[in-house]
Structure formats: C-alpha cells, structure tokens
C-alpha cells in the first residue's frame, strides 16, 4: 500500500531552490512560487495515510516536503512527519499562532509567528536554531536563499535576514501590511503588500521598481516565470516584465483571486472565488479554457446559487493541474483541456478518541489519544486536553453537508459575540450583538464552514499530494495507494414540502450500506405525507480515492418519476421523487430508494433508504423547518468559558473549556 524506503535525490539550487521530484520546499514549490511540481503519472490518487493533530482549529498554513519528511503548522505547533508512514518525527511548540507556511532549506525549517518572531528550527530534530523578533505579526512564508531569508511583516516592512543567525541585513518600508511571500529570480525579490508590488535588489535591498495594484487587500504571492512576473489583485492576473514596471498583459477572471497562479513557460492556471479555474496563455494573456467547479445545490425552491470559492494556490503537475476549493474538494483537471479528471473531498474529521495520531492506512502514532468528541446535547463539557477539544458523544454536530440544513442560528458572533437570538428557527433574523456573522445562518453550515473553509494550499512531491483539512489533519494521497474503502452513505434526510411552498420540513431516515453480504433495514422514522416533490438527501463519502460522479445509478421502482443529482462540493446526492412543481402525489406505501455508487478505482457500493408514505398525514404548514428551538446563549472567546444556547428545543452544549497542550 505504501512505499517504504524510497530514496529521493534533492539538489540545492541556490537562490531558486528548484523543486525536484521529492521536494516542495515551501508554498508554490520553490522560491519562484511557480507551483510546478514533478508530474503525477496517473489518477486517481488514493488516501495512503492521515495524521490528526487533535482537532486543531483551521489555519491557512500549507505543507512543505523535503526528501522523506513533510513539515506543516497547525495552531501553535510545527510538525514533522515521515512521508512514507505519516508517523511523527518531531513537533515544536511555537506558543503562538502560526499563519505562515514553513520553508525548508539548508537543513533548516523557517517560519513566522503571529507574535512577530521569525523562527529557524533544525529540520532533522526540531531543535531551535535561532529566532528574531520583528515589529509586527509575520504571516508571510519565508523565502530562503543560500545566504538570506526574505519575509514580509504586518508592520508594513519587508525584511532580509541572514539565514545563518537571523540578523537583519536590510529592511524596506512598503505601503500596507505584507501577508504574501516573496518570489526570487536570483537578482530580485518580488513581493506584494496589501496594495502594491515591489521588486527589491537581493544584495542591498534597493527598490528596483514598484506599481500600485489598485486593490487594498492583496494576499497572493507573485510568481516568477523566466523574464515575467505574475501578480493577482482583485479579479485580475497581471503579467509584468521582471526588470521594469511594465505590464505585458492583464487577464480578467470571473471573481476575486486570493491564491497564486501556477505557471510554466506556456500556460498559467489560477482559481477564483467565483469557483472557476482559468488557463491563460503566458505569451498573449488570452484564455485557453475556463472550467467551473463545484456547482452549488440548485433546483429547490428558495435556493440561491452560491459559488464555492477557490482561495488557495494552484499546482501544475505534468498533464494535470490541481486546485483546492475552500470547502475541501481537490480537483485535478487536464492541463490541455480543463476537463475534470478526478475529485476528492477532504471530509471533516470528527473529534474522536483516536485524535492525535496517524490514521487511515498508516499505523497510529505521533500523539497521545485524546478523550473527546464534540459536545454532548444536554450538558456535555468541552474540557482541556492535550492539543484539542474534548467532550462526550453526541449527534448535535452531525456531519451534514447540506446547504438546506434545518437547524438555524441567528448568527455566529465573533469573540464574545452571541449565538442565537429570540425565535431563531431556521431562516429567522439574526441577533448577534458583537457578532460578525448574522442573518439566520444554518447551524450545520457554520460547523461545516469552521471545519473545511481554509486557504491552505496543496503540496505535491514525488507524485504524492499533501493537504491540510479544515481541522488541520494532514492527508497524503498517492497514485500507488490501495483503495480499501468502498463509498458509503453517511446519513439520509427526506425533505417534505410545506403547504406554502418554498419551505421544507426535514425528517432523518436510516441508510443501509450493503458491504457484500446480507443486510436488513434498520427501520425508518415516521411516515411522511404524499405531497410531491419529495427530496431525499444522502451525504456520501469515500476516503480512499473519492466518489466518481459518473458512478451513480438510482432507482425507486414504486415511484413513476425519479431523478438525481450529485454535488461533489457538498458530498451530497439529491434524489427527487415526483415532478418538480408538485403536480403529482407520491404513491401510498413503502418505497425503497436504491442507490448504486462507485469510487474512482471502481469499488462499488449498494445503499438504500426506506421511506413510508401516508396520504392521510397532513402536509406540513408554516415556513419554519423543524429541528431547533430558540437560541440565545452566549459564546465566549474560543477555548474559554462560553455557553451555547438550547439545541433542538432544549439541548445545551456545555462551556467551552480551555484549549490544552498549547
């Protein structure tokens, strides 16, 4: 399943740090930030191992790979794992949040911390080499040459430090905080502040040129390709001549661009927040193709299409390009035509007693097992543990990916803000004093966003893709992996239309997965009325190679009209019973929704959901969906002392305890 003892040859390439097969030394692969990796020979990729950090909160840090080690940051720690097994080699407690990605060069791991430190660790042991305190948070990933470390800072400066000891070689004042990473071509360091792009002479820090990007929130790092520099600002990609302030071409995307493009001499690939991936000619700036990914759930009354943003950097690996969407889906597209060849949803990992070590196909290692789960309905305590959240078993935070979740809050407050508010049955007006998010957001969408929305970019080395999930578990996906896990249905719900239309009452049903032997139904919940159309939602997942969208076959022999749609961005299969528009009723009696599905390696699974229709049961009325009573609880700062309001008409989540092991 996994390859043991492989040998990778990595050559140090001075200033450029060119990425070889087993190397992805920093975000973008190397100092050019080009995002070009060694080719991936075949698809699909299969989960080889997964390392859990113990349910750390999300972060934008991206992995780095050198030889047989992978390095990444989660919350306040730096981790070094074996690329072959996922076992922990060492970890370092930074004691402060890290948004910077690690960079590995010269046997040292460099990173920045939110308290202003630039930190250098021994790559073999994790021992501290040196640290240098700057005057603002360091969210920029260091760029390391043979002699220097270039890093941006929130204090509106770019620093060049000596790689050997961290002494400041030169600082340069810029306009706006710097969160991007520098790209180098051996002569200049190109870096963006929140408003401008700068080219600094590496030797003495003199500014060669700069340009106003006509934006005030630039986060993407520049990319160097030959004599060209690519910069993303707002909704456009600009191509500059590397030696002067001259725009060669400019490409308009469909939405704002937050991540850096991947580019070689022929083509640049970039994702935008409207959910599109664009391939652009490096010669002319013209569009070669544009592909929309992860279309939102559509077709139900009251649903507004919402894009699934792509905020992380793109990667080119041979004949494929890869992007990671904000909700955790990795997509591999043909570089020549933009056609989707493979998709994999990085599922939110529940906090379980196994949290804190390597999971999946690798042996468990690298961290003590933590007691925990997510909070118990009716008083579960989230207590201190070594590096993660802890609580009793519960179904309160169930793993639904539906945008149509029945549970609703008025909004999620920021630190110290309120969750809930009076009468916040789904869709109600938000009541969020001191909050940042309001307007009746669904409880499960808030949870899903917390788990999976992240800007962490992919690392690709030796044909393996490394990715951090929203809760900071590291996944390793290989073409040589063996897929031992068939697809499965995680949960099923039936949405029944209300009399008013445009609203639905939700009922949870049992789903039965056949694992090759005889199985019987686990039973089903109460009967539903006969009003049509009825929507059956099934959350499906496959941790091995991913769900093949073309591998679904759905039948309900007792219902005349049946259709289905699969939405990989949600991990959601929606089966429609009856005609849209509600003309025909669903026949009386018991109906079995039979689903055949397969993954990208061809492993198939049969699942079914049994529902019962009773025409005498009245169609639900009112615009409120079932599921949750009024909110009103306070949520304090994450990790200390907040209360959540009543759940499901009376359940309560206990106080959030302090985060342990930090």
In short:
The protein is 2% helix and 36% strand. The chain has 662 residues and is an all-beta fold.
Please describe what this structure looks like.
The chain is built from 1 helix and 48 strands. It has 662 residues and is mainly β. The strands form 12 sheets. A 5-stranded antiparallel β-sheet has the order 1-4-5-6-7, with no helix packed on it. The two termini are 34 Å apart. 54% of the residues are buried.
Radius of gyration: 25 Å
Assembly annotation? single chain
What overall form do the CA principal axes indicate? elongated
| Order of adjacent strands in the largest pleated sheet | 1-4-5-6-7
Given as residue ranges, the uncertain stretches (5+ residues, pLDDT < 50) are 1-19, 351-356, 359-454, 517-523, 624-662
* Number of beta strands: 48
Q: Which percent range fits the helix content?
A: under 10%
Average pLDDT across residues? 76
List keywords for this structure.
disordered C terminus; disordered N terminus; 662 residues; 1 helix; single chain; five-stranded mixed beta sheet; five-stranded antiparallel beta sheet; 48 strands; mainly beta
Strand and helix layout:
Layout: E1 23-24, E2 36-37, E3 46-51, E4 64-66, E5 69-74, E6 77-82, E7 88-93, E8 103-105, E9 108-112, E10 117-122, E11 128-133, E12 143-144, E13 148-153, E14 157-162, E15 168-173, E16 183-184, E17 188-192, E18 196-201, E19 207-212, E20 223-225, E21 228-233, E22 236-241, E23 247-252, E24 262-263, E25 267-271, E26 276-281, E27 287-292, E28 315-317, E29 320-324, E30 329-334, E31 340-345, E32 358-359, E33 380-382, E34 412-413, E35 435-437, H1 443-452, E36 459-461, E37 464-468, E38 474-478, E39 488-497, E40 504-509, E41 511-514, E42 534-541, E43 553-555, E44 562-567, E45 572-577, E46 589-598, E47 604-613, E48 653-656
Parallel strand pairs: 2-28, 33-48
Antiparallel strand pairs: 1-4, 3-32, 3-38, 4-5, 5-6, 6-7, 8-9, 9-10, 10-11, 12-13, 13-14, 14-15, 16-17, 17-18, 18-19, 20-21, 21-22, 22-23, 24-25, 25-26, 26-27, 28-29, 29-30, 30-31, 34-35, 36-37, 37-38, 39-40, 39-42, 41-47, 42-45, 43-46, 44-45, 46-47
């Amino acid at each position: 399943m996994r390859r043991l003892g492989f040998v990778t040859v990595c050559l140090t390439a001075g200033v450029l740090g060119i990425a070889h097969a087993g190397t992805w030394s920093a975000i973008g692969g190397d100092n050019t930030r080009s995002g070009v990796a060694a080719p991936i020979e075949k698809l699909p990729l299969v989960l080889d191992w997964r390392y859990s950090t113990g349910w750390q909160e999300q972060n934008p840090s991206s992995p780095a790979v050198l030889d047989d080690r992978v390095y990444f940051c989660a919350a306040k720690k730096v981790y070094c794992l074996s690329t072959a097994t996922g076992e922990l080699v060492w970890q370092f407690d930074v004691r402060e949040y890290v948004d910077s990605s690690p960079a590995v060069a010269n046997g040292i791991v460099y990173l920045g911390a939110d308290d202003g430190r630039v930190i250098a660790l021994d790559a073999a042991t994790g021992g501290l080499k040196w640290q240098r305190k700057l005057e603002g948070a360091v969210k920029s990933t260091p760029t390391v040459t043979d002699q220097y470390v270039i890093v941006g800072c929130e204090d509106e400066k770019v620093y060049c430090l000596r790689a050997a000891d961290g002494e400041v070689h030169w600082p340069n004042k810029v306009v706006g905080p710097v969160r991007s990473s520098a790209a180098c071509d051996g002569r200049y360091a190109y870096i963006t502040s929140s408003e401008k792009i700068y080219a600094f002479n590496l030797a003495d820090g003199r500014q060669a040129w700069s340009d106003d990007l006509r934006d005030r929130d630039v986060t993407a790092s520049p990319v160097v390709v030959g004599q060209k520099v690519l910069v993303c600002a707002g909704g456009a990609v600009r191509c500059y001549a590397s030696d002067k302030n001259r725009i060669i071409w400019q490409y308009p995307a469909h939405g704002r661009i937050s991540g850096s493009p991947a580019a070689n001499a022929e083509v640049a690939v970039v994702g935008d927040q409207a959910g599109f991936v664009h391939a652009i000619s490096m010669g002319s700036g013209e569009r070669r193709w544009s592909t929309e990914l992860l279309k939102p759930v559509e077709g139900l009354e009251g649903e507004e299409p919402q894009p699934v943003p792509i905020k992380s950097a793109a990667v080119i690996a041979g004949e494929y390009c890869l992007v990671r969407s904000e909700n955790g889906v990795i997509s591999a597209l043909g570089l020549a035509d933009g056609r989707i060849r493979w998709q994999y949803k990085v599922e939110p990992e529940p906090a379980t007693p196994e949290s804190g070590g390597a999971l999946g196909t690798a042996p468990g290692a690298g961290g003590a097992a933590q007691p925990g789960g997510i909070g118990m309905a009716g008083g579960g305590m989230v207590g201190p543990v070594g590096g993660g959240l802890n609580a009793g078993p519960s179904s309160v935070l169930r793993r639904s990916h539906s945008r149509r979740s029945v549970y609703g809050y008025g909004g999620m407050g920021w630190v110290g803000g309120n969750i809930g508010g009076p009468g916040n049955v789904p869709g109600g007006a938000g009541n969020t004093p001191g909050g940042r998010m309001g307007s009746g957001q669904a409880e499960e969408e808030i949870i899903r966003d917390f788990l999976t929305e992240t800007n962490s970019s992919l690392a690709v080395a030796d044909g393996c893709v490394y990715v951090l999930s929203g809760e900071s578990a590291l996944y390793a996906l290989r073409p040589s992996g063996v897929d031992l896990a068939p697809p499965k249905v995680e949960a099923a719900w039936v949405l029944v239309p209300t009399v008013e239309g445009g609203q639905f009452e939700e009922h949870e049903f049992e789903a039965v997965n056949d694992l090759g032997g005889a199985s019987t139904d686990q039973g089903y919940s109460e009967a539903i009325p006969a009003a049509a159309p009825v929507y059956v939602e099934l959350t499906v997942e496959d941790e091995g190679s991913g769900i093949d969208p073309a591998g679904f076959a759905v039948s309900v022999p007792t219902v005349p009209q049946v259709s289905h749609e699969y939405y990989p961005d949600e991990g959601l299969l929606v089966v429609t019973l009856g005609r849209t528009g509600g003309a025909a009723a669903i026949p009386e009696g018991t109906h079995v929704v039979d689903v055949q599905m397969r993954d990208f390696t061809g492993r198939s699974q049969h699942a079914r959901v049994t529902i019962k229709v009773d025409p005498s049961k009245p169609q639900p009325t009112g615009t409120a969906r079932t599921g949750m009573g009024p909110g009103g609880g306070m949520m304090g700062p994450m990790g200390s002392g907040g209360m959540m309001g009543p759940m499901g008409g009376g359940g309560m989540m206990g106080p959030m305890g302090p985060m342990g092991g930090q």
